[in-house]
Amino acid sequence: MPHIIIKLWKGKTEEQKKKLAEELTKTAMSVIGYDENSFSVAIEDVDPKDWAEKVYQPDIMGQKQNLYKQPGYTM
Q1: 64 with 26: CB under 8 angstroms?
Q2: For residue 74, is pLDDT > 80?
Q3: Integer Cα distance of 14 and 20 in angstroms
């Protein structure tokens, strides 16, 4: 039932992506309590030159009401 979509810059290995999906699933299970079989995880590679157009504008700026963690640094 929970579906997690991750968009990241191209260049991560299949091993890194699989590990990320596993760790996100484990963490989500511990927080929201669903069984591992309830989760699906998709990872979309995005070329860095396309990030602003394909991710930042539509998914971050255009969906602020859905963000629980905004990008940015705190010092």
Answers
A1: no
A2: no
A3: 10
pLDDT value at position 73? 59
Measured from the Cβ of residue 10, the count of other Cβ atoms closer than 10 Å reads: 10
Query: What is the span of the domain harbouring residue 42?
Result: 3-65
Residue in 2, 48, 58, 71 annotated catalytic: 2
| Sign of the C-alpha dihedral computed for residues 17, 18, 24 and 27 taken in this order | negative
Assign residue 17 the CATH number of its domain. 3.30.429.10
Within a domain: residue 73? no
Mean pLDDT of 53-72: 94
Q: Which are the contacts of 48, defined by CB distance < 8 A and separation ≥ 6?
A: 9, 10
Residue 48 annotated among the catalytic residues of the structure: no
**What pairing do the DSSP bridges indicate for beta strands 40-46 and 3-9?**
parallel
